[in-house]
Amino acid sequence: MSDFVTPLRTPLDAPIYSSEFLELKSKLERAGLFQRQYGYYVCNVLLIWVMLAFGLAILPLTRNHGLYLLDATYLAFVFGQFGYLGHDGAHLEIFSSWRKNRIFCLIHGNLLLGLSTGWWTSKHNRHHKDPNIIALDGELEIAGVAFTEEQALNRRGVMRALVKYQAYTFFPLLALTIIALRMESTQFLLRRESKQSLIEGLAVAAHIFLYSWFVFSVLGLWRGTVFVVVHQVLFGLYMGLVFAPNHKGMPMFESGAQLDYFHKQVITARNVAPGMINDFCYGGLNYQIEHHLFPQMPRNRLRQARNIVKPFCASHGVPYVETGPLQSYGQMLRFLHGVSRALRMKDLQLISPVEHEGATADPPPGRE
Fold first, then answer.
1. Do 344 and 154 contact (CB within 8 A), yes or no?
2. Distance (Å, whole) CA 302 – CA 279
3. d(CA 81, CA 342)
4. What is the DSSP letter of 108?
5. Of 96, 122, 93, nearest to 287 (Cα)?
6. Is there a contact between 319 and 262 (Cβ–Cβ < 8 Å)?
7. pTM reported for the whole predicted model
8. Separation CA 362–CA 147 (nearest Å)
9. Can you spell out the DSSP letters for 25-68?
């Protein structure tokens, strides 16, 4: 049975740290980038809570107009911002105390979003430990999507049809992400895999009750149902659009690959170009390389870290990939389309079994 929150920090059982990583870490420590940023997080938390209060306050004013769907869209964005706060708390980015971060996650994850923090942390730990490592990275387990040619060819039934054209079905599937997340979260709590399953479950139940009571008491059954569907779908889509570009379409490795921590974290990640809007909308996760190298670094220090990490990688000949938002989605979709190419060709009987064995997917961007 796991703890409520297992700290998401630099894995202790990762491959031995290289001299490059230790040198880079020393540079960032001298720059003071690991110091707690309480002022920043106080302002950020207050801002998001005010945004939530505004969205809830105007809902009654829009119930007789289609504008309530605009409020659902706005609140999907606000929920995403709370998701980032929970993410930062799970990584111990906010407080030095594990207990304080745990309480923070319970409020901003379980109570406000209705998702189990213990479940998400366990899943996310696997990703941070082995990003883009086949069969080990928990973020590669997405129904209806294949990240290797072997996975694509082994799909059956409806999932096979989805994978065959996954470059086109990927974004619609992202819109349904929240359903899978809530199911997995509920199953985790029912299995009592966390020592805090009871308190987590009560917080999730409180979220469901308060959310449903407010929406349906304000909008009624019909409008309330439409609001919930739009809000939840867009919340899941928003989260998917932020998390997907971070690693999808980047180099992947078989389990057992001998990679030191520094190279594994940098090579498998993709940054989205910095900027005030991107930084806020992505919750700092557009600095994915820096975040994976130093998971406990406060979010508002990641841009400064990038200014050190990027030239450091260039001087050591380590690929550092950074693109704009649209380019990141394009690279990701081209990768997914290439992975499913052999499946399309096989189903159309355009190649023989012998030819198929030698077929390979298009190389991920950055690996040519």
1. no
2. 10
3. 39
4. I
5. 93
6. no
7. 0.88
8. 12
9. HHHHHHTTTTS--HHHHHHHHHHHHHHHHHHHHHGGGGTTSTHH
Nearest to 329 by CA among 253, 249, 251, 252: 249
Pair 163, 145: CB distance under 8 Å: yes
Domain ranges of the chain: 19-357
- C-alpha to C-alpha distance for 88 and 111, rounded to whole angstroms: 16
Asked if residues 21 and 293 have their Cβ atoms less than 8 Å apart, the reply is yes
Contact 117, 126 (CB under 8 A): no
- The half-sphere exposure of 290 on its side-chain side, counting CA atoms within 13 A, is 28
Residue 15 phi/psi, 5-degree rounding, is -55, 155
Structure tokens at 6: 């297992």
Residue with tokens 């302002």, as numbered in its chain: 43
Q: What is the mean pLDDT of residues 46-63?
A: 96
Q: What is residue 1's predicted lDDT score, i.e. its pLDDT?
A: 40
Tell me which residue of 252, 328, 331, 317 sits closest to 288, measured CA to CA: 328
Could you give the CA distance from residue 297 to residue 92 in angstroms, rounded to a whole number?
8
Interval 225-271: pLDDT, tens:
999 999 999 999 999 999 999 999 999 998 877 889 999 999 999 99
DSSP assignments along 126-137, one per residue:
HHHHSTTBTTT-
- Which residues, at least 6 apart from 217, have a Cβ–Cβ distance to it below 8 Å? none
Which region, left, alpha or beta, applies to residue 352 given φ > 0 means left and ψ of -120 to 50 means alpha? Answer: beta
Contacts of 95 (CB under 8 A, 6+ apart): 36, 89, 101, 104
Q: Which position has the token pair 């111990």?
A: 92
Encoded amino acid at 204, one letter:
V
3-state secondary structure of 215: helix
Structure tokens at 149: 């040619």
Query: 323 forms bridges with which residues in the sheet?
Result: 272
Alpha-carbon Rg for the chain in angstroms: 21
Residue 87 contacts residue 297 (beta carbons within 8 Å): no
Q: In angstroms, rounded to a whole number, what is the distance separating the alpha carbons of residues 260 and 210? A: 47
Q: Can you give the length of the chain in residues?
A: 368
